[in-house]
Amino acid sequence: MALLVKNGRVINPALQTDDICDILIDDGKFQAVGKHLQADGAVVFDASGLVVAPGFIDMHVHLRQPGQSGKETIASGTQAAAAGGITRVVTMPNTDPVIDKAIIVEGLKYKAEREGVVKVDVIGALSKNQEGKELSAMGAMADAGAVAFSDDGHYVESADFMRKAMEYADMLHKLVIDHCEDGSLVAGGYMHEGAVSNELGLKGRPAVAEDISVARDILLAEATHAAVHIAHISTKNAIDMVRRAKAKGIRVTAEATPQHMILTDEALRGFDPRFKVNPPLRSEEHRAAVVAGLLDGTIDAIVTDHAPHTWEEKDRSLNLAPSGFVGLETSVGTVLTYLYHTGSVDLTTIVRAMSTAQAEILGLDAGVIAVGKAADLTILDLHKEWVVDSGTFYSKGKSTPFDDMILKGKAVATIVDGEIVMKDGEVLR
Ligand code: DOR
């Protein structure tokens, strides 16, 4: 049945438009975009006072399948995405087994078709078993639909391996995504190395670990002419280097998470493992640099690094708890509250970073509201106040540093291929 989204403020960065208008959807595709549209028999969604954006994408998500379904599944993770206003997630390969073969990519795509509430794309590992030694079956995985390659969770230590991986991925017209933290510098560290870690007497993970690895990857991208994407960038120097590399025409892009734009290492003072994440929450200087990087286009994308763990695993002391936490159900709210409502970042930049830019980086036919394209939309109420309650999350992961926070702004509907899969926080599939 046709769906008519009426009177919303449609922000469409791909076409550089921001206007009150209607959107007619049928057969899963946009049929018309304009003023005063009519369609007999169509279901009408009144978007008056709401923002209508191209479907939000999250290109850095851990759905934990195969092998870790106690932490998350395609079903629970995509429900969480729908609840958070995300229409498409891209899942990372640090699973058990690692996603390093075509058959695993195929299996996940098959499962996602059946169990996914939102769209799922798969990132294949760069190396077999993510050991950083032998190239994975990248060609076969690309044929099976892998959209990019990464050893996320682990830094690719060998420059020689990384160079080959970039060259090979580039032949396949695929992107390499790197988790940039030099292992020798971060070994045994639990938080950002700085004044707070010194005061607490905790071993830190220094910013220079990220800087060195980002520098190497940029130099390799320049030498190979391949594209590299820096995952969850978090340091001032790394951002400066990406800024300069982009100005030189090197094919580098970068993403940042809400946590690295909102929180700092001060949060670790209570030794609370909910704040443990890699790369770590850094000092104010770095946090401000991440926001500045987003504003000037150095940082292209806002992603969550949604990293669910079981409560038993996460509810341990800081040194024993695993790194990472969930983000799919809080990213829109935290970004709107702390970046938009504070006047730091404008809405078009946010929509581009949460949708359009990610589609461009990965070469996905998405991130734009245009006739004939798949009708994926995220509808936002900028003024809705709500309190984060991890107990109500659809995700199996309940650990979030944002628990109990009062937020302003929320996705109130998620539309995938023309179907409303979430309305007012309730997932309908
Ligand atoms: O804190 C993290 N956890 N950072 C990552 O890059 C990986 C993630 C995970 O998979 O748990």
Can you tell me about this structure?
It catalyses: (S)-dihydroorotate + H2O = N-carbamoyl-L-aspartate + H(+). Zn(2+) 2 binds at residues 152, 179, 232. The protein is 31% helix and 24% strand. It is α/β, with parallel strands linked by helices. The strands form three sheets. Strands 1, 2, 3, 4, 5, 16, 17, 18 and 19 form a nine-stranded mixed beta sheet that branches. It has an eight-stranded parallel beta sheet with strand order 6-7-8-9-10-13-14-15. α4 (159-171) links the parallel β9 (148-150) and β10. Residues 62, 94, 152-153, 179, 277-278, 305, 307, 322-324 line the site of (4S)-2,6-dioxohexahydropyrimidine-4-carboxylic acid.
Topology:
Layout: E1 3-12, E2 17-26, E3 29-34, E4 43-46, E5 51-54, E6 56-61, H1 74-84, E7 86-91, H2 102-115, E8 119-124, H3 138-143, E9 148-150, H4 159-171, E10 175-178, H5 183-186, E11 191-192, H6 195-200, E12 204-205, H7 207-224, E13 228-230, H8 236-247, E14 252-256, H9 258-262, H10 284-295, E15 301-302, H11 311-314, H12 331-340, H13 347-362, E16 377-387, E17 406-416, E18 419-423, E19 426-427
Parallel strand pairs: 1-4, 1-5, 6-7, 7-8, 8-9, 9-10, 10-13, 11-12, 13-14, 14-15
Antiparallel strand pairs: 1-2, 2-3, 5-16, 16-17, 17-18, 18-19
Helix pairs in contact: 4-7, 7-8, 8-10
(4S)-2,6-dioxohexahydropyrimidine-4-carboxylic acid is lined by residues 62, 94, 152-153, 179, 277-278, 305, 307, 322-324.
